Each structure stands twice: as C-alpha cells, then as structure tokens.
C-alpha cells in the first residue's frame, strides 16, 4: 500500500546566502519533506517495512550543515541525497524556507519547493527543477 510520510518544520541554524553576512552570522531555516513509499508497515508494524524518518532527518541535517549560496541548491542537494539513499521512494517533495530573507522590504520567509517522482529514467532527475518559489509575509 502506498503511504505518504511527512516531516514538518525541521528547524536549523545554517549559513546559506549570497551576502557575506549570511555566510558568517547564519540564519534560521525550516525544512519540510514528504515522501511516498509502497509499504506493508501499516499491517506489519515493523520498522523494516518502511523508511525511518529519523534517518531522513539525519540526511537533511547533514545537507543543511553544508553552506550554499542559494536555497534552491540546498533543496536540490537534500532531494538528491534522500533519493540516492532510499531508491524505493516513489515521490519526494522538499521544501526549504529561509526566515526573514534580506530584501528591500519586509518578507517573513523565502521558500523553495522541489518535487521528484520516480520514473523508469530516475537517474535523469534534474534537481534544479523548481515547482514553485513562494515569498510570504
């Protein structure tokens, strides 16, 4: 049976940004990650029949610790790393939000969302494809 699992509002202090100050002082980021797998864990109640969200969290934490200029790049790295470690994932969505991004106005966050679905040509997934960029206030 197909099951969607979501990790929401994973919070990190990280050093992503184009501006030098962002790379020195850092900022607050939230990551949401959803994945769909075909699993029998709803019947078996066995961790071996699913993908541990604790392992997913560790991958996200590792990728967030590597400075990047663009949050698109961070989201792409997270997506690629999770997909490479868990090839059984059928669909994966990564959302990275940067709180209070430097702008010429007031913005609460800048968000990048990337989605990849498993295909017969899964190795050709381009992690730079962005489904949407949202700035909210």
Give a description of the structure.
This protein is an alpha+beta fold and 137 residues long. The radius of gyration is 16 Å and the shape is elongated. Strands 1-2-3-4-5 form a 5-stranded antiparallel sheet. Helix content is 27%, strand content 35%.
List keywords for this structure.
5 strands, alpha+beta, five-stranded antiparallel sheet, 27% helix, 137 residues
What layout of secondary structure does this protein have?
Elements: E1 2-14, H1 20-25, E2 27-38, H2 41-44, H3 53-64, H4 71-85, E3 91-99, E4 109-117, E5 132-136
Antiparallel strand pairs: 1-2, 2-3, 3-4, 4-5
Helix pairs in contact: 3-4
Q: What is the SS-derived class?
A: alpha+beta
- Tell me the Rg in angstroms: 16 Å
Give a quick account of the main beta sheet: strands, pairing sense, barrel closure: 5 strands, antiparallel
Total helical segments: 4
Quick structural summary:
With 137 residues, the chain is α+β, with helices and mostly antiparallel strands. It has 4 helices and 5 strands; from the N terminus they run E-H-E-H-H-H-E-E-E.
